[in-house]
Amino acid sequence: QVQLVESGGGLVQTGGSLRLACAASGLTFSRYAVAWFRQAPGEEREYVAGFSRTGGYTYYADSVRGRFSISRDNAKNTVYLQMNGLNPEDTAVYSCAAGQRVITSSLRLGAAYDYWGQGTQVTVSS
Fold first, then answer.
1. What is the distance between the alpha carbons of residues 14 and 40, in angstroms, rounded to a whole number?
2. 3-state secondary structure 103-123
3. What is the pLDDT of residue 36?
4. Contact residues for 30 (Cβ-Cβ < 8 A; gap 6+)
5. Per-residue model confidence as pLDDT tens digits over 108-119
6. What is the pLDDT of residues 85-103, one digit of tens each?
7. What distance in Å separates the CA atoms of residue 86 and residue 93, rounded to the nearest whole number?
8. Per-residue pLDDT tens for 38-59?
9. Integer Cα distance of 119 and 14 in angstroms
10. In the β-sheet with 18-25, what is the strand arrangement from edge to edge?
């Protein structure tokens, strides 16, 4: 049984930081493409950052580049998202996802991923 569990969300002020974690069981992250997505109320789900399945490539959405950083700890089978310089536009439910057969052209599409966590709420006050 595959399970992805996010943690680390919360309420912060503008300019603050949070570190999200996604812990996996039932799969090994190093064998999967892994990504963070977010979805704000009334908005479509948005790709935030992720790793390719192979090749060691890292990707970021333009909206978070330079502020967010994705990393992983293979020993803990956990992927992190360090978020700095948060602003109210970052308010959303953040979810991690893993896909075994994600190709480069669909890496930013949620439909490409096989497994999803339930998400963690990030709220940034103005």
1. 17
2. CHHHCCCHHHCCEECCCEEEE
3. 98
4. 72, 74
5. 999 999 999 999
6. 999 999 999 999 999 988 8
7. 14
8. 999 999 999 999 998 875 799 9
9. 21
10. 3-7, 18-25, 78-83, 68-73
Q: Which of these, 84, 83, 91, 87, lies nearest to 123 by C-alpha position?
A: 91
Binned at pLDDT 50, 70 and 90, residue 30 comes out as confident
- Residues 6 or more apart whose CB falls under 8 angstroms from that of 29 comprise 72, 74, 77, 78, 79, 98
Burial of 25 (C-beta count, 10 Å sphere; 0-12/13-18/19+): exposed
How far, in Å, CA of 26 to CA of 76, rounded?
13
Q: Any idea how long the chain is?
A: 126
CB 102 within 8 A of CB 113: yes
